[in-house]
Amino acid sequence: MSGVLARRAASLSPRRRLLLAGAAVLVLSLLLVFLFIRTEAVDPEVRTRVTLNLRELEKLDAEWDANILRAHIGRAPADPALTASLPRMHDLMERLGEALPLTPGAEAPAAYASLRRALRDKEQLVTQFARHNPPLREALQHVPPAVADLKTELSGIEGALAPARIVVRLDTTLNSLLTEILRYNLAPTPALATHIDEILGDVAAQQIAFSPAVVEKMDALIKSCRVILEKRPLENRLEAQIAATGLGAALDRLGREYDRSFDTVLLERQRYRGYLFAYSAVLLVLLAYAGWRLRRSYRIIGEVNYRLQAANETLEQRVAERTAELEAQSRQLERLAQHDSLTGLINYRQLTRLLERALARSDRRDSVVVVMFIDLDGFKAVNDTWGHATGDLVLQMVARRVQDKLRAEDALARLGGDEFVIMLEEVTTREGALRVARLALEQIESITEADGHPVKISASIGIASARGQAGAARGQAALLADADKAMYEAKQSGKGTFVVSPQAQWLTPS
Q: Based on the domain organization, do 90 and 203 belong to the same domain?
């Protein structure tokens, strides 16, 4: 049979043999191009961009959650801070969607659709949160000074003109109202709401003994309390629903699916590279045979071989370079996600992680975890007088000096602005925590000059602590809230001091 084919080939005219050789070369070349294209199926830059977009989305989502927490505790306005990052998040979502055609299978599109739904649901819930939070925040800020104002009225002319028993009863009722409202804000329950409503009714019933001006203040206080009764449970439900949207889990899932898809494509590319190498070897044999038959084509064959080797070396070099860039960018993004860019301290997100781990260790060891919420006094005057560059330098000096006085196992975080948090573990006594607070206060007050400008700052420090299983059960959010509340009491006490939360727990009695 082979002899017959050889005789038929030999019987062909030179023109036909040239055409057949050209067709064979064309087919072999097309197959080579196909294999080469398959080895270039995924550009490493695409994977890098997808990873960077996912990292930025995770960072924006963490900042979003931090803004929700600040709005919850009254440390930041709910609007527009809660929606400022949405345009950028939508832009990142569109960019992630553009990479979906590069992923095989339906898993990555399904994860992307789940992430889009989670983002839409969270956006709608946060919009509701932003609508209900301002009146609740205003009411919470109004109640304590309103109660203090009414108590001042009772100790003045109004108290002298009204019957003594009513004055005493109203004073006691106002104390009870303030206590119960603060309790309700931390842990709202229907029974507590009913009790507060009864107290408000008692306040309203005693209005008849006072002047219209005092009655107006009492009405304003009652109105604010009723806003808290209505809005606090609603806001807590919204926060629970926001947490249940699972945006972070959806981001993790999409990241895993993209990694899996790109790894699959990368494996396929490696397989085709093997085919390409094998095919190249076959071509070399064929080209060598053709060179033996066609000595004039030998130079072309050598040139093709050289180009193939150069292309393979260039491809390997590009893969190595892109891999190194991706690893460096990932390390940089990881650090940015955990640290404050100005002071180099850990940020709120990393602090909450460390605090959760510390509470878990406290549960196992029955030890004490202490949190100190620091808010600088006089810092706004520095910014207003000498500018933000001097203010940034002051923040860096505060971070450096306070950090120098802490142990290696202690943590100092910057939440933003002029707010810092110290976390201590294994604190056995209340006096040990107070000693650290005094050191921090002394270091802050020792800053008298920045960038050649005289400055005068101090700090208000709120101290809270949690012990063992009970502290771990309350969680890091409650511990931070206790410290924040104590810090506000320090502010109201005249600033430049520290206050220990009544809920603080210690290993030994104070």
A: no
